[in-house]
Amino acid sequence: MKNGFLKVSTVTPDLRVADTVYNTEQIIACMKGCAALGSKLAVFPELSLTGYTCGDLFLQQPLLAGALDGLQAVCEASEELDLLTVVGLPVAVGSELYNCAAFVKDGTVLGLVPKSCIPNYAEFYEARHFSPGPERAQFIEVCGQDVPFGTNLLFSCMDMPEFTVAAEICEDVWTVAPPSCRHARAGATVIVNPSASDELTSKREYRRELIKGQSARLVCGYLYCDAGEGESTTDLVFAGHDMIAENGTMLVENNTRKNGIYTTELDLDKICSERRRMTTFTAIDTNDYLTVRFSTAVEDTVLTRKIDSSPFVPDEDALREERCEEIISIQALGLKKRLSHIHATTAVVGISGGLDSTLALLIAARAFDMLGLPREGIIGITMPCFGTTDRTYNNAISLMKALHITVREIPIREAVTVHLKDIGHSLDDHNVTYENAQARERTQVLMDVANDVNGLVVGTGDLSELALGWATYNGDHMSMYGVNGSIPKTLVRYLVRYFADETQDEVLRGTLLDVLDTPVSPELLPAEGGKISQKTEDIVGPYELHDFFLYHMMRFGYLPSKIYRMAVYAFDGRYDGETILKWLRTFYRRFFSQQFKRSCLPDGPKVGSVALSPRGDLRMPSDACAALWQSDLDRL
Fold first, then answer.
1. pLDDT tens digits, residue range 327-353?
2. 46 is annotated as an active-site residue
3. What is the torsional sign of CA 124, 128, 130, 136?
4. Catalytic residue among 7, 34, 46, 212
């Protein structure tokens, strides 16, 4: 449960219709299995103590008494387990019968939540037996205890306040106004749904989208536990379609149609962070709710859920290709609008033969095609200097020719040499002044050429470089429109690869593939033996790590120690903990110290949920201190 991770389970146990003794035994055995897995919450199907398909037997006293006996046994078993258990049973209150979810922990029935919406159409005839539950809680005697009963119950963990649970039952989520909407706004971060949804053609797909959508809409963890094998098949088949979703993502799903335990971890920190970020996620008055408190041991949760080491890049090939085309379109549309707005028919791009300038040029070509402008209006300029290698130079020339743009070569070695001499800087001193003089000279050339041709300088810097401040202030940091400003380096690589896969031009494809194979470098230090001597990732660290850090810091505001833990898990076998910690410290140090560069960024299109524009996603003071973030890492 540390770091906001909560291990949870849905359980579809073996069942015999109306055999409450057998069903209770199976439920208790599964409770023990869930606890052994480290789960803190286990949800069983609707009417799991009796079976959903009992029909008119629900009107028989032996079945109702047997269900209460089963609940008592579940209570007694729970005394030895650190597990919040939700089981289904019919409960008589006065002259009415209710379809209830019982919350059980530490030998106590914490509460009974009745079903709100009673279906009585098609294959369902629940109104024959059950009444809709009241919203406002009352107390009833169950298993010798005074137990709160009502739909508006919240179950909140005193040791982990973000672990707050509410329930709706089966049909409730299918209705026009599911109770879970109200529960989430009242503070529930986890919704449980004990269900008995039968299988019909195409119903599984609809049910899946329903649960994913509800978890997204409510910004919550949603545990949907379905009845399975063992229910009567007189007219229906139940296949245990258990699902655990989080914020619109399906974490676990039973596609086997077999009974069993399905376990994963919810990230409650993520849920709370998303809700705080969404100003439209508004709370409601909770006076109508009763909050029941419970305790649980806070301990490290063994992670089994997938944590993607490349959160900016989709795993699936088809989705990745679709995403690449979408991002390219956004970039190109942004540049197209800017060019048309200022009536520019020319654009200037500095071409280094590296990844970022390659992507920027490809986007410029797409924008010119959209505008119906000849590509000759794109002026690509390569500016060789002290660190330029034959490989990057040749790729720059080949790329520009393959795209049929105007090619210009403007060497800057002499201009930089004169400038360094003018300011009294030795050519033998390869410090930051030596490097930045080249970057600023290149920017000056681009700006002046753009003025000369009445054009616009297209920026090439990417999101990862902006996060780390790996850009020369008023050098490559500056442009007239930055098309790559919200594209992280890991994604830049996939976008260029997408262009390589899509093109029919073999020369262009070969050039793009060689660009992809070239080490990332600013090439500001003299080459060694004709090869790149300055490799960015040797200096600031692997971009795949920094992109991982950036995503989880900016998207969810996690503690650095949590990001470290997730990175160790996600990059297992690729980086050890010491290496990850080293570069994570570097990330925070650079991120905070380099905000001044981001405070004056040129315009550029946002393409994803993480961006650093001072006008949009990151309004951060340039003088903010990193001490709190670094001290959290010191405690590791």
1. 999 999 999 999 999 999 999 999 999
2. yes
3. positive
4. 46
